[in-house]
Amino acid sequence: MATQTLRYSLEVVKEEARQLVEAGALDRKQPIYALCRFIPPGEWQCVELELEESDYLLRDEIADLLGREDWSND
Question: Looking at the domain assignment, is residue 4 inside a domain?
């Protein structure tokens, strides 16, 4: 039986993080590692690899991953 390796793009990881922050499940100040609670363990390795290739550390804040955000009430 062949196993399929999933590949998470950085954009998919960022969007997942953004949705979790907007839903209040995560805080922007938490480390990126906190995302692992919301991603299945077998898939987390793929996310870690993508983050590493993009020079993110798991201890970096989620805010670093989200980058600049525009606020409509400014």
Answer: no
